[in-house]
Design brief:
This protein is mainly β and 397 residues long. It contains two helices and 32 strands. The protein has helices at 14-49, 52-62; strands at 70-74, 82-86, 89-93, 97-101, 107-112, 118-123, 126-131, 136-141, 144-150, 157-162, 168-172, 180-184, 191-196, 201-207, 213-222, 225-234, 245-250, 254-260, 263-268, 271-276, 281-286, 291-297, 302-307, 315-320, 326-332, 336-342, 345-350, 353-358, 363-368, 375-378, 384-387, 391-395.
Length: 397
Amino acid sequence: MANRTKDIWNDDDGAGWAERRSGRLRRFLVFFLTLAAVLGVVLAAAYRDGTGFDVLRRYLTYGGSASSGEERYRYDASPGSRFAVLGDQLVVLSDNSLRLLNKDGGETWSAQVKMSVPALSQGGGRVAAYDVGGRFLYVLDERGEVFRLETEEDEPLISATLNAKGMLAVTAERRNAKGAVTAYSADMGQVVFDMTSDERFVTEARVSDDGNTLAVVRLGQENGVFVSNVLLYDLREPGKIEPFADYSISDGLVLATGQQDGRFVTVSDTCVTCASYSGRVEASYDCGGAYLRSYSLGEEFTALLLNRYQAGNVGRLVTLDAEGEELGSLEIHEEVRGLSAAGRYLAVLYTDRLVVYNENLQVYASLRGITGVSGALMRPDGSALLLSAESASQFLP
């Protein structure tokens, strides 16, 4: 029988051990140098345009094996469905269901609902799902429901917003008044503001990202001119419902409010207005008589699609910073089916392709040959979701 023992002190194997050690060292050096080269490319790209870190984020989140066009989420077809990205999950709201779908295609949470005009808004890692003109509102995070609200029969919902801390502001009708606003703490356990408007109609409200100020949008007329008025309230003084400042947006209907770089940003049909939390209008971008065809109000910048005529596809795509200055401008001569801004990116869905631009409207990536796609959702890491009637697939640049 062969001798299976080995004398490690007397066997003459020093040379073989040295060779094996040298081989391992060489392999380690090759790995280290390759890793350093990859990181060097990523850091160089990040230094150049800020997108390199997003490449690394996408690789770590979706893996090197993930590919564009991969179907990630499935849902029931419904013409009125609304969608929102919540981390790596997808919120799907239809007239009869609210679902939170995880990245593996499974269901994290769901509920049966009944909504006539479903709507979604998001902020602070949460999504608010509600029925415009209805009575029910749900707030979700990545684990599921965190808050539910049911209003009275004669006090239907108008709008809901979430700030960067997840604080909720709800606008609703109220009996014998022209609207009301209620704001909740970040844990949804406390009402921090409640106000009834008797003079003008209230359309939207939003808590500042620092949690100290509430902006309330009201509609009215002054000297025969249509005016949107923004009132500011101090949330650090509980029980006080008198505004400490206000500003007006003349001859404009406010369509959306948001926040960028410590400023309230409002998009109206005639202009974009940027104001400080103290109520001082710091910048305004005039649409110059062009027709606002579409817009996307992101956390970093605002995108506007301005048409030269009421009908047709001749127009201009512009992006604006928090100071109302143009970051980029692009002439458009074809149909744009949707805009979606997130992070430093803008997804533009054309008839035959998806183009992802950076905030300066330079092409970052594109995908041609898309069929059956009805919408697109940009994600802050530079990836996008392509929405079809019954499923969503991802696009990884």
